[in-house]
Amino acid sequence: MAQALVMFLDAAANVAIDELRDQLAHHGLAGKATSTSPRHRPHISLAVAEAITLSDSSLTRRIARQRLDLRMELVGAFAGPQGILFLGVTVTQPLLEAHAAVHSSMTADGGGPWGHFRPGVWVPHCTLVSGLGGHALGKAVSLLHPFPELAAHVSTIEIVDTQTGAAVAPSL
Length: 172
Fold this sequence. Notes:
The protein is built from four helices and six strands. The longest helix has 16 residues, at about 10-25. It starts with a strand and ends in an 11-residue tail after the last strand. A hairpin with a 7-residue loop joins strand 3 and strand 4 (about 85-90). It has helices at about 10-25, 60-65, 95-105, 135-145, and strands at about 5-10, 45-50, 70-75, 85-90, 125-130, 150-160.
């Protein structure tokens, strides 16, 4: 079991993302994500590791209270066989500062953050679906592009189990 420290989004953003997922599902492109699964509640992962422990227990509450404004302006896909389609989050200084602060506070006892979530290589994103093959991935991008810019803000931050989406710790 791995854990992720995730930023959950406001209700309006969740509805907009669910509408995009519904559009994909309507065309048989639901992949492995379903809007009703806790594992796939729209979020942006700040860190993923075998276990997440922060030396500053108040850090995530301070970040959540900032209600970071986020913009998702692109549809993208990660390289590799996972077939992950995502909404790219525009990088801002406050977002990078929050990400860096989380990683500075992570303790080493969890094995350290997984490589592609580390500062300097992190691609902030909200996964729409995974498990799409090459042709299906291309079709999904075509269906969603162009789409209107999606504005969101961070509502809560939690540490979750990456397999189930269940909270490992109460809202931070």
